[in-house]
Amino acid sequence: SAVISQKPSRDICQRGTSLTIQCQVDSQVTMMFWYRQQPGQSLTLIATANQGSEATYESGFVIDKFPISRPNLTFSTLTVSNMSPEDSSIYLCSVGQGENIQYFGAGTRLSVL
Amino acid sequence: EDQVTQSPEALRLQEGESSSLNCSYTVSGLRGLFWYRQDPGKGPEFLFTLYSAGEEKEKERLKATLTKKESFLHITAPKPEDSATYLCAVQPATGFQKLVFGTGTRLLVSP
Which residues contact A59 (CB under 8 A, 6 or more apart)? Predict the structure, then answer.
């Protein structure tokens, strides 16, 4: 399975600022995904990022709030914009490989004050 | 609406005490059902994928089964290192391979 590295692993941010999370994969993958895991809740898909095309966002998530870049087959970024305390969460990237299996990074733990 | 419900929310077992975790789902066409293990401070780790009713898969002390409405994760003679949160997810037949997750079962195995 792919090795997925996320940066930063955690951060504490001020209200109104933005944070960009990086996801690096050790092999080329077509599909990358960004999820949010809020305390006590299930993982929720934010968007699917395919190289060379616009990200596809799930209901309740918009590009202005969560812009995504996918410049090549091994890298993607998710930006959390104009943050509020409600954005405090764990953000995870995953990649799809063989048999539709998704493998996850360790996540970015974000706290917004 | 695609939905996954896991029970119980938390389970405490003694080492060697076998049990089962439940995952019931409603989905508009099932491409696959997935089980993950998540340890504190880490991302989900893939365990199994099941594609059709009647299918079973095993890995060490874990065995996953699937019916048309639910899946079970059976844990036989668990050890303390099996303590983790176990997540169930379904992949609908439509869409870009998205996963719909349940909230998980937190398992604690005491020595």
Answer: none
Q: Does A33 touch chain B if contact means CB atoms closer than 8 Å?
A: yes
Residue whose C-alpha is closest to residue B92's, from B52, B32, B50, B36: B32
> What string of DSSP letters covers A2-25?
--EEEE-SEEEE-TT--EEEEEEE
Q: Counting one residue from A and one from B, how many pairs have CB atoms under 8 Å apart? A: 59
- The strand pair at B10-14 and B19-26 is best described as unpaired
Burial letters A4-41, b for 16+ CB under 10 A, else e: bebeeeeeebeeeeebebbbebeeebebbbbbbbeeee
Interval B93-108: pLDDT, tens? 886 678 999 999 999 9
Helices (H), chain A: none
Q: pLDDT, tens digit, for every residue of A19-65?
A: 999 999 999 998 899 999 998 889 999 999 988 788 999 999 999 99
Cα–Cα distance measured from residue B77 to residue B19, given in angstroms and rounded to the nearest whole number: 8
Contact yes or no for A100/B31 (Cβ under 8 A): yes
- Chain B positions touching A42 (Cβ under 8 A) are 4, 87, 101-104
Give me the residue from B41, B46, B103 closest to A103, CB to CB. Answer: B46
